[in-house]
Every structure is written in C-alpha cells, then in structure tokens.
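Thread: sanity check for a docking pose with NDP

Original post by kr_44:
Hi all, I'm comparing my docking run against an independent structure prediction. Below are the sequence and the ligand SMILES. Could someone generate the full complex and paste the structure tokens? I mainly care about where the ligand ends up relative to the chain.
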Amino acid sequence: MLEQKTITFLGAGSMAEAILGGLINKQIVKPEQIIVTNLQDQQKLTRLAGTYDVNTTSNRMEAVRRADIIILAMKPKHVKEALEEVQTVTRPDQLFVSVLAGIPTDYMESLLKGKASVIRTMPNTSAKVGASATAISKGAYANDEQLQVVEALFAAIGTVTVVEEEKLDAVTGLAGSGPAYFYYLIEAMEKAAVDNGLTKEEASALITQTVIGVGQRLQKTEKSAKELYEEVMSPNGTTEAGIGVLREYHMQDVMEKAIAQAIARSKELGVVFHN
Ligand SMILES: NC(=O)C1=CN([C@@H]2O[C@H](COP(=O)(O)OP(=O)(O)OC[C@H]3O[C@@H](n4cnc5c(N)ncnc54)[C@H](OP(=O)(O)O)[C@@H]3O)[C@@H](O)[C@H]2O)C=CC1
Ligand SMILES: O=C(O)[C@@H]1CCC=N1
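Reply from moderator J.T.:
Ran it for you. Here is the predicted complex with NDP included:
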C-alpha cells in the first residue's frame, strides 16, 4: 500500500521525528521514500539525515511537488503560511495528513483551495517507542482508501482509532496531551522517593516498572479503574492512607478540569488560527 509512495514531512520537530522514526524502524517505508523539510533549522535537517538516512531539503516547494503524501507537522500557528506557500504546487492526487492540534480539516481544505484530500490525526509522543494512542478522522474529500493508508502509517507507531472529527479535540486533551499528565505525576513520585531516602536510579526503576505494570494490567483485565485501585487498598493500610490525601485534595476533580482545559484549548486553536 505504501510501496513507491513518497512521504514529505512539512516540519521536522519532535512529532515528525517520532513518526518517521517509527515508520523506518518498523520498515513500513524505506528511508529513501521520506523527504523532510522545515522552516529554517538546517542543523536539524542534517541530524535527521544522519540518523535516519532520510532525504532532507530546505526547498519546501520541491519537497511538496515530489510527494504523494504530505504530513503537516508544524505548529498550529504556522499552518496558514505553510499551506499558502506550497498551495500552488499541490495536486488533487496528493494526500495531506495533519497532526496539528485543533486545526479543522475544512480550514486546511480551504487553504489548499479545491477539493484536497485531508486526514486529521492526533498521535502522542509515545510514537517514539511505537506506542502512540492515535485517533484519525477524514475530511470531506478524503476517501476510505486514503483513510486505510493513514491507518497503516500510524499503526506503525501504535494503536489507531478512527473517530468523527468533532471528537478530535477531546482526543487531543485526553491522549495527545495525555503522556504529559503522567510524566508530571511521575516527577512528583520521583521527588517523593528521593526525599524518602531512595536514590534516583532506584526511584526510576521502581516507578517505571510500576507504570508499565499498570498499563499492561489495564490491557489485560476486564476490571474497572475503581476495582483496580480498590484491589490495592487493604483496609486501614498504606494505600488507603495515600488515596485519602488524593481525595482530600480532590485529585480526580483536578484531573477532570485539566483535561477539560486542554480540550477547550484545542477548540480554541481551531478558532484562533481560522482567520
Ligand atoms: N508534541 C506533542 O506531544 C504533539 C504534538 N502534536 C502536534 O504536532 C505539531 C508539531 O509539534 P512539535 O513537533 O512538538 O513542534 P516543533 O516545534 O518541535 O516542530 C515544528 C516544526 O515545524 C517547522 N515549521 C514551521 N513552519 C514551517 C513551514 N512553513 N513549513 C515547514 N515546516 C515548518 C519547524 O521548523 P523550524 O524548526 O525550522 O522553525 C519545526 O521543524 C503541532 O501542530 C502539535 O499540535 C500532536 C500530537 C502530540
Ligand atoms: O500541547 C500541544 O498543543 C500538543 C498537542 C497535543 C500534545 N501536544
């Protein structure tokens, strides 16, 4: 499905690298099928070429002209200038795949003038280890075959869920931003561990395995999250003491508010950069 296709990344940041690294590691595409371009950071392109053997260029028009699939991987605030710049060299047979938070497909279609095939996705940084939770949704002019191509691309870097576009802001606040919530919590766990006499290395080994264990358990069990944490809590034991503090500080309310705020920001990005 992806043999012979040329994939151009417009943007060479952390998401672009996570995706192209996954595609190459899983041998979904060959390095020579990939072209990476960005705005001005030549050193970044040199590093990517050295690390992954991909083609790089500062000639964005040429990179788009040569592409079958164009992955939009710039910041949302740069999408307008990026698409306006290359719009004249795009063709109807090309497929545009966005990883941008908040930006609706109809906005990208309007910038591309005409009936461009656009598929919007929301991966997360766990793509770097092939474990992204990605959701994808097709725009008005993309077809099912193109959706399958994008499913195959993102399956190389984790799981893929097809959703209606109106759900993508929720996906963004939940799973796009999701890894950061856990890392933030883990930072506090590391501090608590060191404050209580463990070395950084000991803390890191114990926390990492605890997180991996939680993920694997969630994958394998039918039990709810509530059942799972209650299973850990012995009456009047240590967990009950710890969870008691989380309840006192309304940790679950805080988490719900954080996700709601992230979702609101995703919606806002779509509006702010719409004009
Ligand atoms: N980071 C994350 O966890 C996730 C991010 N995303 C989305 O991915 C996108 C990229 O994020 P991230 O990788 O973190 O961002 P970075 O800032 O790391 O990278 C942005 C890249 O875009 C390039 N760029 C800017 N303008 C243009 C242009 N006109 N044409 C081509 N390239 C351009 C920049 O080039 P230069 O450096 O030369 O200026 C840079 O390489 C964002 O839209 C974000 O919403 C989605 C899911 C998760
Ligand atoms: O913070 C952001 O805007 C991006 C989108 C999802 C994760 N990072």
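The CA atoms of residues 26 and 256 lie 35 Å apart. Hope that helps with the comparison, let us know if your pose agrees.
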